[in-house]
Write a sequence for this structure.
């Protein structure tokens, strides 16, 4: 589901949506980049963003918030702090010191890898995965695999923005995982 | 005059108890009760002939006891297992404070009962990212909700009444600590990023690494002239990254009030490299 279906949240959602900015042709031609940094410049909208997630999860006995480098590091920790959960950073290769487990995933061209610390997450942990945006869902699925390999239960994936045309929600659903987003954004391919 | 004590439950930390007769001669800040038992991280101010000498209280990690003992003078120390809490640097930080021209910098290393839990929650990883480097890993602190909460609270308590309108966080670990602080004090959060990550118009600052250079970027229009700004990162080593962030902010006319980090590596002299910019840290680690 997405927020905004609840009438109480509508005003906050509108404020959040209008604080986002779209940058055309970044990082490459044809891509309309959804920029959350302008949201971070609006303290009320940023706070509302966090509050909407916290309200949804605070009674769900979530013990782990996993945030995907780097913009997941901006939204994950405030949620974790508010609900008393651990924050676990999921990082690009070779950034985490010490022992890690790795999950490879496919990109449009080539592949990439996501890593998590051994021991950060335990069997029985109930986890949320947080990122700023879901596009194809490839990164979130890699994150999900890391957490499940470590024995955690992934309760939900939570993002500020969804680009529905890229079908990330369906990809997560095929793994049995629900998705919660605050706003949907239009993907407008260049002609 | 110093007792070095090792607590069983903080097996990686060494606490140094003060039993100095000097404390009866001079006033000290944050006293009350027995020095050792109650005032983890308290600061003692000692007047000397020419200048104020501040002795700062910091928790040291067990691997560094050897270097600490050689600094303070082994003859002054004896091991005495007990449940002491206070920690002191004695000579080392006294010298540092005396060489700092601004003695009114205040408590630039935090003093607080919460510090020992925060410090103990930080993990050391040897030989990362390369041999000889002892990496200070804050991810274990993020797994301790009380320690993480206390870390943020200590920064928020310091800055909430200071009319700070911008918290700038350095990628990527500055993104973990900066936003919670910004949210709590009602400030904007501005990410300072590696090249080609920020979309739209940016300004760039090149800075030196041990080998080669790197570039830091900030969005045009994120910060206005005159805004009171903090720069946040997990750790200050040589200070090169923080100086780059300060330069970017000052180029748009911002007023950088202070730099704040969880951890300082004082041997790398980052504090000196910041020049007249104050630095506030929670934990100082040799």
């Amino acid at each position: 589901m997405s927020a905004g279906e609840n009438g109480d949240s509508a005003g906050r959602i509108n404020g959040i949506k209008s604080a986002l900015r779209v940058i055309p042709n970044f990082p490459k031609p044809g891509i309309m980049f959804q920029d959350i940094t302008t949201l971070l410049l609006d303290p009320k909208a940023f706070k509302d963003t966090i509050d909407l997630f916290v309200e949804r999860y605070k009674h769900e006995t979530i013990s782990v918030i996993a945030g995907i480098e780097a913009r997941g590091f901006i939204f994950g920790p405030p949620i974790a702090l508010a609900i008393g959960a651990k924050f676990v950073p999921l990082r690009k290769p070779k950034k985490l010191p010490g022992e890690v487990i790795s999950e490879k995933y496919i990109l449009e061209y080539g592949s990439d890898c996501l890593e998590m610390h051994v021991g950060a997450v335990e069997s029985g942990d109930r986890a949320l995965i947080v990122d700023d945006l879901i596009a194809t869902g490839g990164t979130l699925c890699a994150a999900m695999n890391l957490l499940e390999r470590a024995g955690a239960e992934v309760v939900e994936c939570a993002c500020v923005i969804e680009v529905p045309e890229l079908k990330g929600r369906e990809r997560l659903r095929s793994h049995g995982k629900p998705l919660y987003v605050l706003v949907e954004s239009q993907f407008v391919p260049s002609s | 005059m110093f007792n070095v004590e090792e607590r069983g439950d903080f097996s990686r930390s060494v606490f140094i108890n003060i039993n100095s007769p000097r404390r009866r001669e001079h006033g000290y800040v944050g006293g009350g009760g027995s020095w050792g038992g109650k005032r983890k991280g308290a600061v003692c101010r000692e007047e000397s002939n020419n200048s104020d000498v501040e002795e700062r209280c910091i928790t040291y990690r067990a691997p560094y006891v050897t270097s600490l003992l050689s600094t303070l003078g082994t003859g002054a120390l004896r091991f005495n297992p007990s449940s002491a809490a206070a920690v002191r640097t004695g000579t080392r930080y006294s010298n540092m404070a005396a060489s700092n021209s601004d003695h009114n910098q205040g408590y630039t290393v935090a003093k607080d009962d919460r510090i020992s839990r925060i410090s103990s929650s930080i993990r050391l990883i040897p030989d990362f990212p390369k041999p000889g480097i002892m990496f200070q890993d804050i991810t274990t602190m993020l797994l301790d909700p009380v320690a993480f909460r206390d870390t943020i609270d200590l920064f928020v308590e310091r800055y909430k009444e200071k009319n700070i309108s911008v918290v700038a966080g350095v990628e990527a670990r500055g993104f973990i600590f900066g936003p919670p602080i910004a949210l709590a004090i009602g400030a904007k959060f501005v990410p300072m990023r590696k090249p080609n990550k920020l979309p739209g118009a940016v300004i760039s600052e090149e800075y030196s690494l041990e080998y080669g250079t790197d570039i830091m970027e900030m969005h045009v229009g994120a910060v206005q002239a005159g805004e009171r700004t903090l720069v946040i990162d997990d750790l200050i080593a040589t200070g090169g990254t923080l100086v780059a962030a300060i330069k970017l902010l000052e180029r748009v006319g911002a007023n950088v009030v202070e730099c704040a980090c969880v951890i300082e590596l004082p041997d790398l002299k980052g504090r000196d490299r910041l020049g007249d910019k104050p630095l506030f840290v929670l934990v100082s680690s040799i």
